[in-house]
Design a protein that fits this description.
46% of the residues lie in helices and 19% in strands. It is built from ten helices and ten strands. The protein is elongated.
């Protein structure tokens, strides 16, 4: 199964038009407004998986999200000067800061310093050996803001190739609820690039969702300030529709049978009550009975 290319194109163009209109409105009031927004693919699943995974899935992109104007932070296990110098000499100007786990616990141990670190970078890469300790070291704000560090193997023989691959990917981590979000681009990218990233990302994302397309309810795209524009919605299965219709018919029959049975019970009850009731005596007959009793009493006293 694949997305409708025409529908995806319309949705992407609509989001870009929305961003441009928003930019024009903000420029009139704020000359320093940053109107470039990330674009996310929103996938809603039918059944939630209860298997939680700390390590996000790596999904390759046809068009890279990061260039020299972007900022990437690399988190390492130990602050070894020789190792840090080696990483700096790999030739990735996009990596603006290298932070050790010790730095996170000492230099960035406060709420405000963590917030500043989170807002300073577009992407966080981390040594895969320390990924399990990051939720506690970084705090929940990083994960709520979708700034989940992406793991890289810093022990790889070809370290430049390993980091290069990581920078050419987007990352997916299953949410606790039914709605999942994956970054596919920014609003300053060309529409054709966003369309390619959207369709390519979903093709790879489906592989990491239990039961694949059968478990996908809807797909849409959105920016941080827009509504979600739908590009796919699952229709009910034929068997589900038939079974639901049959269930409705059964319920209707049960209601009719219940009403009929209730009417019959009511009729029987009324008949029984009529039989049990004695017909009332006429006034003349009642007077004669009273006179007879009075006569017997008079004779007895005499």
């Amino acid at each position: 199964m694949s997305l409708n290319n025409e529908l995806v194109t319309k949705a992407v163009n609509s989001l870009i038009a929305h961003t441009k209109k928003k930019e024009e409105n903000e420029e009139s009031t704020n000359l320093f407004a940053n109107t470039v927004e990330p674009m996310h693919l929103i996938v809603t699943v039918k059944k939630i998986s209860h298997k939680m995974r700390i390590k996000p899935y790596r999904i390759p992109l046809r068009n890279c999200l990061y260039d020299e104007s972007s900022s990437v932070c690399l988190i390492i296990k130990n602050h070894d000067e020789e190792h840090v110098e080696k990483l700096k000499n790999l030739g990735f100007p996009v990596i603006k800061e290298i932070v050790s786990m010790h730095d996170l616990k000492s230099k960035y141990n406060g709420f405000e310093t963590k917030r500043q670190l989170m807002n300073a970078h577009d992407l966080f890469l981390t040594d895969d050996r320390v990924i399990n300790g990051l939720p506690k070291a970084l705090g929940g704000k990083f994960y709520l803001a979708k700034k989940i560090p992406a793991p890289v193997n810093l022990r790889a023989k070809n370290l430049r190739n390993e980091i290069g691959k990581a920078l050419k990917c987007t990352y997916y981590k299953a949410a606790r609820g039914s709605c999942n979000s994956v970054r596919v681009g920014t609003t300053d990218m060309a529409p054709a690039m966003l369309i390619e990233n959207t369709m390519g990302t979903l093709d790879n994302l489906v592989k990491h969702i239990p039961k694949g397309w059968d478990n996908i309810q809807s797909v849409g795209i959105k920016t941080g300030t827009s509504l979600t524009l739908p590009i796919y919605n699952a229709l009910p299965n034929a068997s589900t529709v038939i079974s639901n219709a049959a269930a409705d018919d059964d319920e209707a029959m049960e209601d009719v049978e219940g009403e009929t049975e209730g009417a019959e019970k009511k009729e029987k009850k009324e008949k029984a009550s009529k039989k049990s009731k004695k017909s009332p005596l006429s006034r003349t007959k009642a007077k004669n009975i009273v006179k007879a009793h009075a006569k017997k009493r008079a004779e007895a006293t005499a």
